[in-house]
Design a protein that fits this description.
Largest sheet: 7 strands, mixed
Number of strands: 11
Structural class: mainly beta
Shape: globular
Radius of gyration: 13 Å
Number of helices: 0
Distance between the termini: 40 Å
Order of helices and strands: EEEEEEEEEEE
Oligomer: single chain
Helix content: under 10%
Length: 125
């Protein structure tokens, strides 16, 4: 089994920064692709960023502001969030997958098998 645990959420003002972290544990460590998703009440969960080996993928709304990294030694996934905007307010989820996936599908929720419980990010104007 794969377990995911997020941390690092909080409240910041517009223009602030946060670092989200996710710890992965379980049988599969190295051959797992991982990503960050976010969801606002009343809206669909959307992909934010993903990483597979050395390839990274970021959604258009966060390009240039968010950076995803993975530490295979510590088995952690991070999301560095800079220049935060109120529209970034959401509950952020760490996700992992171990099945076949196309690059074009890396930011699709259906590509992932395992999910964390989420961490709230609130950005005030």
């Amino acid at each position: 089994q794969v377990q995911l645990l997020e941390s690092g959420g909080g409240s910041v003002h517009t223009g602030g920064s946060l670092r989200l972290s996710c710890v992965l544990s379980g049988d599969t460590i190295s051959n797992v692709y991982m990503g960050w998703f976010r969801q606002t009440p009343g809206k669909q969960r959307e992909g934010v960023a993903a990483i597979y080996v050395v390839r990274t993928y970021t959604a258009d709304p966060v390009k240039g502001r968010f950076t995803i990294t993975r530490d295979n030694v510590k088995n952690t996934l991070d999301l560095y969030m800079n220049n935060l905007k109120p529209e970034d307010t959401a509950k952020y989820y760490c996700a992992a997958g171990d099945g076949p996936v196309a690059r074009r599908d890396m930011l699709f929720e259906s590509s992932y098998n395992y999910w964390g419980q989420g961490t709230q990010v609130t950005v005030s104007s």
